[in-house]
Design goal:
The protein is of the alpha/beta class. The strands form two sheets. It has a four-stranded parallel sheet. The chain has a two-stranded parallel ribbon with strand order 5-6.
């Protein structure tokens, strides 16, 4: 006679916890781009100059002074970043590179979205060869912030849309994170902009820094000191300072760029008229 012995199941094996992936530490940071990258709109007290998004991100990441580099300059176009700023950035061998550029390209009569896309691609690839995580931006519709005549407003919106389409194509192909400025909470609030409405205020720069560090956290970087949106450490420009900036720099800038941009705006206005 055979006896059917059913094995008694033993205790279940304990579940193994998923391995913990250590966070990456950003020890070297570079900021590339135009006047927003320089920090315009967030003036420093006493010693003068600008703070802006770069130092705010550096503080959040715990980057020490020797690990921070900012070769950006006002008026820079994407080509300027590629030829004049990337070589210094590559030599710095950063862990992270923030890139705010492209808006100056849209304001020039020779704007070419395909050329900007090719230049942006080269910037990302050259920095990527050093192991750098590059974070470019796609832009908000600045015509919603800056007061412009209707034809100029439509022209600027169309240019920004062309630029963003080029940025989307590049970041999708290269697989890099990208900060969408239009999606930042409060992007179109006037408190986010300085008096010229061209550059972020201190609050606007803090919003940029928080957006960048949020992307870096998603990419596995340690962000030991999250960016606060509470303003502090900068200086609120006086009314006389506002007026002085507008008279000495703001109005001359608008005059130069307006003359360059008017032919394109005229085409937009004519197309709109024909479409009626």
């Amino acid at each position: 006679m055979s006896v059917d012995v059913t094995p008694v199941p033993g205790p279940p094996e304990p579940s193994r916890p998923a391995p913990v992936v250590p966070l990456k530490r950003a020890r070297r940071l570079v900021v590339l781009g135009d006047s927003t990258a320089v920090g315009l709109g967030d003036p420093l007290p006493r010693r003068g100059g600008w703070r802006g998004v770069g130092p705010l991100v550096a503080a959040a990441l715990g980057v020490e002074a020797g690990g921070y580099l900012n070769p950006s300059f006002t008026g820079a176009r994407m080509r300027c970043v590629l030829t004049g700023q990337v070589p210094a950035a590559v030599a710095h061998r950063p862990d992270v590179a923030l890139l705010v550029a492209g808006m100056n390209d849209t304001l020039r009569p020779d704007f070419d979205a395909a050329r900007v896309a090719a230049e942006l691609t080269e910037v990302i690839r050259r920095l990527g060869e050093t192991g750098t995580t590059v974070l470019p931006v796609r832009f908000h519709d600045h015509s919603k912030v800056f007061r412009l005549p209707p034809a100029l407003k439509r022209a600027l919106s169309a240019r920004v849309a062309e630029l963003n389409a080029a940025v989307d194509e590049v970041v999708g192909r290269e697989g890099v994170p990208c900060l969408d400025l239009a999606r930042l909470p409060g992007a179109y609030d006037l408190t986010s902009w300085s008096v010229d409405r061209l550059h972020p205020s201190e609050r606007g720069h803090r919003m940029l820094a928080r957006g960048f560090t949020g992307l870096l956290a998603e990419a596995g970087f340690d962000v030991p000191e999250p960016v606060s949106l509470t303003c502090g450490g900068g200086v609120e420009p006086s009314t006389s300072g506002h007026v002085g900036w507008l008279v000495l720099k703001g109005i001359p800038w608008l005059w130069r760029r307006g003359r360059e941009f008017l032919p394109y705006a005229a085409v937009i206005m004519w197309d709109s008229f024909r479409a009626r």
